[in-house]
Design goal:
With about 325 residues, the protein is an alpha/beta fold. The chain is about 35% helix and about 25% strand. It is built from 11 helices and 13 strands. α8 packs across α9. The structure holds acetyl coenzyme *A. Acetyl coenzyme *A binds next to α2, α6, α8, α9 and β12.
Length: about 325
């Protein structure tokens, strides 16, 4: 049977660094509050040409470089984002244009924090059926210009940042490596716990002055509910991925969780009884980059030598929807 193997990984982070002290100048918050509640020290905010599709393309070029491939070798694009350049068309189409590879299919995945893991699962299935051989799976987000950067929006605004990460997934006949399983879950009854309500087609009119005045154009989060669900769903989906392939937490070399919040990551690590060094973190540098956080972290973990040939790596995410998902990969 064909296996889907990650052969290239890349990332792009905007140049502008925004520290907690910079946020102190925009809203009533403090470096101490943000560090203690989230573990975040700084994040990146996109500027100028740094759109979701542009950053996704830049991360893709690095992933292609690592894979020793040209953009022309790719036969399908999957882009996960909650912050597309436009309401439509999908940013996957724009990213394809940036990469200069017209004609190949481009699919946007709108699954927020789990979007990259969902996208990887879709790529895995296309490869296993033989439909495609080399697929780009990308997570890219420009969230900064959609945040309420005043005291009113501080609970959400201090958490999120911008960035992009990409992988090249290729078909291989090697049974010893690649994506071993993907587990995907959702429970839509919680959709109001973490959402961007407006503008949207459920509102009539689609957009209004009232939406801007009441602040419903900004993301809203029930922080306590998100925390409570995240710390149970994350460990559950990681265990499910391991058990379905005959492994236990003792077999894992590295868990790369979606970088939601350092306190969530710490709770997950403790609940799984894993040593700290087996659960990757870089949220202090970039904040929560939603669909981009896992491929960015994967790219850095590889550079730091934390993943080697044969390593068992678990990618896992929880987020808006609610959705939660995991992918188990033998490197
Ligand atoms: N700076 C200073 N004070 C703030 C800020 C801020 N940025 N944001 C909120 N506060 C205030 C609140 O207004 C509140 O003030 P009050 O007591 O006068 O009413 C006080 O801080 C405490 O607020 P709480 O909401 O009770 O703070 P809590 O300890 O619950 O922490 C937090 C809030 C960090 C959001 C927490 O609920 C949490 O960690 N939730 C998880 C949510 C999360 O991290 N999501 C990540 C994104 S979603 C995802 O990726 C899955």
């Amino acid at each position: 049977m064909k296996r889907s193997v990650i052969v290239g990984v890349g990332r792009y982070l905007p140049k502008r660094v925004v520290t907690n002290f910079d946020l102190e100048k925009m809203m009533d918050t403090s470096d101490a509050w943000i560090r203690e509640r989230t573990g975040i020290v700084e994040r990146r905010f996109a500027e100028g040409e740094e759109t979701t599709s542009y950053m996704g393309a830049e991360a893709s070029k690095k992933a292609l470089n690592m894979a020793g491939m040209k953009a022309e070798d790719i036969d399908f694009i999957i882009l996960a984002t909650l912050s597309p350049d436009y309401f439509f068309p999908g940013s996957g189409c724009l990213m394809q244009d940036h990469l200069g590879i017209p004609g190949i299919g481009a699919l946007d995945v709108r699954n927020q924090c789990t979007g990259f893991v969902y996208g990887l699962a879709v790529a895995d299935q296309f490869i296993k059926t033989g439909m495609y051989k080399n697929i780009l799976v990308v997570g890219s987000e420009v969230q900064s210009n959609g945040l309420n950067l005043s005291t009113q929006g501080r609970d959400v605004a201090v958490i999120f940042g911008d960035g992009a990460g990409a992988v090249v997934v290729s078909a291989a006949n090697d049974n010893n490596k690649g994506i071993l399983t993907s587990i995907l879950h959702a429970d839509g009854k919680h959709h109001k716990e973490l959402w961007g309500k407006n503008p949207g087609s459920s509102s009539r009119p689609f957009v209004s002055h009232e939406m801007i005045e009441e602040g419903s154009i900004y993301p809203h989060m029930n922080g306590k509910s998100v925390f409570k669900h995240a710390i149970t769903r994350f460990p559950a989906v990681i265990r499910e991925a391991l058990e379905s392939t005959g492994y236990t937490t003792k077999d894992v070399d590295l868990v790369i969780p979606h970088q939601a919040n350092e306190r969530i990551t710490e709770a997950v690590q403790i609940r799984l009884e894993l040593p700290r060094e087996k659960v990757y973190r870089n949220i202090h540098k970039y904040g929560n980059t939603t669909a981009a956080s896992i491929p960015i972290a994967l790219s850095e973990a590889l550079e730091e030598g934390l993943i080697k040939e044969g390593s068992l790596v678990c990618l896992a995410a929880f987020g808006s929807g609610f959705t939660w998902a995991a992918s188990l990969v033998r490197w």
